[in-house]
Write a structure and sequence with these properties.
This protein is of the alpha/beta class and 876 residues long. 45% of the residues lie in helices and 18% in strands. The longest helix is centred in the middle third of the chain and has 34 residues, at 507-540. This protein is involved in the repair of mismatches in DNA. It is possible that it carries out the mismatch recognition step. This protein has a weak ATPase activity.
Length: 876
């Protein structure tokens, strides 16, 4: 047995081998050591190899999926080795023959299909990237849904696209792996190198043609050699990992980079589109807006959010769908009720295609088609916009298949086909008979006994059973002559005579005995045959079913965005082919929801970046006043509009944005030896080198990570470059008040500030963005609010006053001013003792307040009490 394990393991050196032994998957040698640590299970031993104990651990077959998921998440790949024959079959070759085993599947992060291993609301992409003669291409597939896409991709765009798609696994030629390993590692993607042969474009074209049963790929579009190579590598890898059982893949769709808004990885991270900065889904924009009720609708929402469109007609058709659902609230409500009962048709289809499905996947198709028909009836007489009308057209046309599934399946099938019991009573005569024999064998025998009694005229005739003869007919010796004479002896064959009885059989009874004994197995065999027939019927209609699933997802997304718009008081944006960006009373969707939970209002603000050829707001104001929130909300409103959603604003007019750049917040990258300032400069350089005149750029505190004059110089030059060279629409937040002078020098720059109010040395944030420049940053006041010791705050005021005085009186250098300051010339006072005692001078006022119940006061009484309090305060 160990020889067989080692032989199989030799073919999968980079994977853990799950070696099937009865009801367990066992692991041996180094695989066992690694798995026991990763899974926190006991490590034992079994026999010896080369004089050393063989480490061993195992997991039960029935719960293997949970262990697989843990291993995959920890970066392992697993080869699943199954028994290819029963122990009884093995013994036929010899008593000591080992059961044949072979790997039936290689489990990797990008090839998961099991429901328990996947997040139903997210795609699980397997991607492939290659460069052929300086032309790059990226292909990606979700084998759990069949989605298959490809696009030309210059190597410099690999990072942003990986950030958009977030694939679980990336395939790459082994001779190119080193060039892009660092880029891939940034996103936590499992990188799998393949031989150059897997990416050979000629072989790849042949593989693709065989897969889609076409003679040429021209019917799918025109692809570059690199695109064909990337797609072919995916198909080759799936053939390897699925051991020839290729999943049901849709025809490849070619994506064009200029059809969607370009968003780089830093911007996605800063804006927290699909994940918060903490790493989870909670706190992200996706979490705030997701009201979808189907898995397919949730996946579509994430795709749209990750890749907003730049095509005006596409955006407007999506907005029209949401508008319809907002206006037709009853239809939208009815649809959402029906959609809640729609299962995941795409993933059920995929599991059926690769023989990893069960009866519940058949039921999922049936239930999905049932709901699709109900939804079609709801939309039947509605005047639908084009996108919804197209979706409604794909909901019907499955009458024959639905009737077949309705007639053949029980309401609630079991999980596994081997359990049986999923085919409905009355669907198949042979199955009904086998079940009757299995479940009602005694009744069938009793009926035969009655029949024989009538046939022979012997009322005492019995049918009995023992382990030697099986079923037999028994009569007493008094009826021997009758049973042994013609014509009965031609039907009833004598088998045994005892002292008082004679025993007979008939061909009919012998056949019935065999059928009863085999009824259980036969019933299961019939159900499996019917399962395969139903699966074939479904897969023959896979293309139409995929269109239905896509239509249901589109309807789910439209109704969910309408529900969001109504509940959150959002507005339809006006999206145009101009450079206008005008938002009235815009709000941050995530922050607003968070504040609402605390009972606090969100202060809405306007944005107007509609200048030509450039429009830049230079935003000043103190920390904590809401500058970053304002910057981010503008970007998110633009993104939501181009995704095809209503927006959190009173009104919005948005000229299509080609690129979205956001450099907000700061963090270092110690793994690469980059300081916070270096990361900031790298991200800023990427913006200045890539942004075009249709881009929206969000910049916050450029240059703050270095010396004051260095930082000011960099920020100044960056703003000039955006205005003169990039000519982008931009929001530029800064604490360098000197830069406000640029508003008078550059025609497209306008000053704006977040207003505050100062009272008794404290700063009150109004969170209102107004035109104009801030007079100062209020940093010392904010530090006081943060809880810095009073002594530190006082010293900071002293230094600040000296610096400002020196600047006013002659522009003295900060160093000279600080040199003239006495060092630490202040006393550190102990904090005052806390006491709950009321000072004597306020005792009279306190006594009066103790007597008052505000709820019982009339307006006149309240006024009189106010006079009493004033008089009491004078007396004190």
């Amino acid at each position: 047995m160990m020889a067989q394990f080692l032989e199989i393991k030799q073919g999968y050196p980079d994977a853990l081998l799950f070696y099937r032994m009865g009801d367990f998957y066992e692991l041996f040698f180094d695989d066992a050591v690694a798995a026991s640590e990763a899974l926190d299970i006991a490590l034992t031993k079994r026999g010896k190899h080369l004089g050393e104990d063989i480490p061993m651990c195992g997991v039960p077959v029935h719960s293997a999926e949970n262990y697989l998921l843990t291993l995959i998440r920890k970066g392992f790949r697993v080869a699943v080795g199954e028994q290819m024959e029963s122990p009884e079959e093995a013994k036929k070759r010899g008593a000591k023959s080992v059961v044949k085993r072979d790997v039936v599947r290689l489990v990797t992060p990008g090839t998961l299909t099991e429901e328990s291993l996947l997040d139903a609301r997210r795609h699980n992409f397997l991607a492939a990237f290659t460069v052929v003669r300086d032309e790059g291409a990226l292909a990606w597939v979700d084998i759990s849904t069949g989605a298959f896409h490809v696009m030309p991709l210059p190597p410099v765009r690999l990072g942003p696209e990986l950030a958009r798609l977030a694939p679980s696994e990336l395939l790459m030629p082994d001779d190119q792996e080193r060039d892009y390993a660092e880029t891939v590692s940034d996103f936590g993607i499992s990188l799998t190198p393949l031989s150059r042969g897997s990416f050979d474009s000629t072989g790849a074209q042949d593989r693709l043609c065989r897969l889609f049963k076409v003679s040429s790929l021209d019917a799918f579009g025109t692809f570059t050699r690199a695109e064909v190579a990337a797609m072919g590598a995916i198909v080759d890898y799936l053939d390897i990992t699925q051991k020839g059982k290729l999943p049901l893949l849709r025809k490849p769709q070619r994506e064009a980079a200029d059809r969607s808004m370009q968003i780089d990885a830093a911007t996605r991270r800063n804006l927290e589109l699909t994940h918060s900065l903490a790493g989870g889904r909670a706190g992200s924009l996706l979490h705030a807006i997701d009201r979808t009720v189907t898995p397919g609708g949730a996946r579509l929402l994430e795709r749209r959010l990750s890749s907003p469109s730049r095509d005006l007609s596409t955006i407007q058709s999506r907005l029209a769908a949401v508008d319809f659902m907002v206006e037709q609230r009853q239809i939208s409500t009815d649809l959402r009720d029906a959609l809640r009962r729609v299962p995941d048709i795409d993933r059920a289809l995929s599991r059926l295609a690769i023989d990893r499905a069960g009866p519940r996947d058949l039921a999922a198709i049936r239930n999905g088609l049932t709901q699709a028909e109900q939804i079609a009836e709801t939309l039947e007489n509605a005047d639908l916009p084009d996108l919804l009308a197209d979706s409604a057209g794909h909901l019907t046309g499955h009458d024959d298949l639905l009737s077949l599934l309705d007639a053949s399946l029980v309401a609630e099938p079991p999980l596994l086909a081997r359990d049986g019991g999923f085919i409905a009573q009355g669907y198949d005569t042979d199955l009904d008979e086998a079940r009757k024999l299995r479940d009602e064998g005694r009744g069938v025998i009793a009926q035969m006994q009655t029949q024989y009694a009538e046939q022979t005229g012997i009322s005492s005739i019995k049918i009995k059973h023992n382990n030697v003869l099986g079923y037999f007919i028994e009569v007493t010796a008094t009826h021997a002559d009758k049973m042994l004479s013609e014509p009965l002896n031609e039907v009833f064959k004598h088998r045994q005579t005892t002292a008082n009885q004679l025993r007979f059989t008939t061909p009919e009874l012998s056949e019935m005995e065999t059928r009863i004994l085999n009824a259980g197995g036969r019933a299961l065999d019939i159900e499996k045959r019917l399962y395969d027939a139903l699966k074939t019927q479904i897969l023959d209609r896979a293309s139409d079913l995929t269109d239905t699933a896509r239509a249901l997802s589109e309807l789910d997304l439209a109704t969910s965005l309408a529900d969001l718009s109504i509940a959150e008081n959002w507005a339809k944006p006006r999206v145009t082919d101009s450079k206008v960006l005008n938002i009235t009373a815009g709000r941050h969707p995530v922050v607003e929801q968070s504040l609402r939970k605390d009972g606090a209002p969100f202060i809405a603000n306007d944005t107007d970046l509609s200048g030509d050829p450039s429009s830049i707001w230079l935003l000043t104001g103190p920390n904590m006043a809401g500058k970053s929130t304002f910057l981010r909300q503008t970007a998110l409103i633009v993104l939501l509009a181009q995704m095809g959603s209503h927006v959190p604003a009173q009104a919005a007019e948005i000229g299509v944005v080609s690129q979205l750049f956001s450099r907000v917040g700061a963090s270092d990258d110690l793994a690469r030896g980059r300081s916070t300032f270096m990361v900031e400069m790298v991200e800023t350089a990427a913006i200045l080198n890539q942004a075009d005149d249709r881009a929206l750029v969000i910049l916050d505190e450029i240059g703050r990570g270095t010396a004051t004059y260095d930082g000011l110089s960099i920020a100044w030059a960056t703003l000039e470059h955006l205005h003169e060279v990039n000519r982008s629409r931009a929001l530029f937040a800064t604490h360098y008040h000197e830069m406000t002078a640029l508003a008078g020098k550059l025609s497209g720059v306008e000053n704006a500030t977040v207003s505050v109010r100062e009272h008794d040395g404290d700063v009150i944030f109004l969170h209102e963005v107004i035109r104009g420049a801030a007079d100062r940053s209020y940093g010392v006041q904010v530090a006081r609010l943060a809880g810095l010791p009073d002594a530190v705050v006082a010293r900071a005021r002293e230094v600040l006053d000296a610096l400002e005085k020196g600047d006013r009186e002659g522009g003295a250098q900060p160093k000279a001013v600080i040199d003239d300051l006495p060092l630490f010339q202040f006393s550190v006072k102990a904090p005052p003792e806390r006491t709950d005692a009321i000072p004597t001078q306020y005792r009279r006022v306190a006594d009066l307040l103790e007597e008052v119940n505000p709820d019982d006061l009339s307006p006149r009484d309240a006024l009189e009490m106010l006079y009493k309090l004033k008089e009491a305060s004078r007396e004190s």
